[in-house]
Amino acid sequence: MSTTPKTKAATLALVQALIAGTQKHFPSGSFTLGGTSYTAASLVPILQGLANAINAVNAAQANAKDTVATMQGSEATVGPIIGSYKRFIHASFSSVTQTLADFGLTPPKVRAPLTVEQKAAAKAKSEATRLARGTTSKKKKLAVTGNVTGVTVTPVTAPTAAPPASPATPVTPASPSAQPASATPSAPVPGSATK
């Protein structure tokens, strides 16, 4: 089981508390810890050494963050200048390899000219790609039109308000003696649902 906390802040707090407690309760005490004898006067500097080391790391990390932020700001400012300067050097000494090397630059790669067979293959591939994609020139695109037949134009008019519906009048059922059971059913009553 580890007795040391996992974070620097917790470790620092523990060490400082141990130092304060030792100075308060055992100012002239002696201890045997892990088989080694210590006095309060010899134990406190050991604990203080760890506290000093943690404080030094914290300060270094804070300084490192500030230093990194300063570097990133400098890169943002100087980066475009470096890019422009490199382009200027390449333009000035594009064919002088040794001079470019003095600046830490390499000459741009010279593109090898294509052979006749490579040019023919590239042209064939390009034409096949245009055909597969249906790519045409501007003039050919202008010649392409759509054909529409049988267009019916329906005018749009504002809908008129429907007259209010009159309430349905109840129909009195016919008496059983007046209509035999085998007679055809009467017309459905308005407003009633039929299945």
Structure description:
This protein is mainly alpha-helical. Among the domains are: 8-77; 93-134, no CATH class. It has five helices and two strands. It has helices at 8-25, 40-92, 97-102, 116-133, 138-143, and strands spanning 30-33, 36-39. It has a two-stranded antiparallel sheet. Helix 1 (8-25) packs antiparallel against helix 2. The longest helix is centred in the middle third of the chain and has 53 residues, at 40-92.
Question: Keywords for this structure?
Answer:
195 residues; mainly alpha; 2 strands; single chain; 4% strand
Mind telling me the C-alpha Rg?
48 Å
Mean pLDDT: 82
First-last Cα distance: 80 Å
The portion of residues assigned to helices is 40-55%
Q: What portion of residues belong to β-strands?
A: under 5%
Strand order of the largest sheet: 1-2
The largest pleated sheet is described as: 2 strands, antiparallel
Indicate the structural class: mainly alpha
Number of helices, counting only DSSP H or I runs of 4 residues or more: 5
List the uncertain runs: none
Write a short abstract of this structure:
It is flat, with a radius of gyration of 48 Å. Among the domains are: 8-77; 93-134, no CATH class.
Helices and strands in order:
Elements: H1 8-25, E1 30-33, E2 36-39, H2 40-92, H3 97-102, H4 116-133, H5 138-143
Antiparallel strand pairs: 1-2
Helix pairs in contact: 1-2
